Amino acid sequence: MLHKLSVPISEEAITELRVGDQVYLSGVIVTARDAAHKLMIEKFIRPPQVMELTDLYARLKELLAGGVVYHCGPVVSQDD
């Protein structure tokens, strides 16, 4: 099944997705590698206690609410 979704995505639209569905996304999509995912978990799952992180936390929370994080793994070069 083909789904055309705009970010932010509603919870209802997400629950309709099934493995193998094709999804066209429009809107702001965050790309991140493994280190960024680790940082988000360590620093932003709970509101930060450090004052300088507060603005970044608020922006990430806003950006990721109903949003999409596309995992971009490292590029591995191959010897020919």
Structure in words:
The chain is α/β, with parallel strands linked by helices. It has one domain (2-71). Helices cover 34% and strands 20% of the residues. It has three helices and four strands. A two-stranded parallel sheet has the order 1-2. Strands 3-4 form a two-stranded parallel sheet. Strand 1 (2-6), helix 1 and strand 2 (22-26) form a beta-alpha-beta unit. The radius of gyration is 16 Å and the shape is flat. The relative contact order is 0.23.
Uncertain stretches? none
Number of domains: 1
The topology string of helices and strands comes to EHEEHHE
**Main beta-sheet strand count, sense and barrel state:** 2 strands, parallel
Sheet with the most strands: spatial strand order: 1-2
Q: Give the percentage of residues in beta strands.
A: 15-25%
Estimated radius of gyration: 16 Å
Mean of all residue-level pLDDT scores: 80
Number of helices: 3
Distance, first to last CA: 39 Å
Shape summary? flat
Give the number of DSSP strands. 4
Q: What structural category characterises the helix and strand content?
A: alpha/beta
Percentage of residues in helical conformation: 25-40%
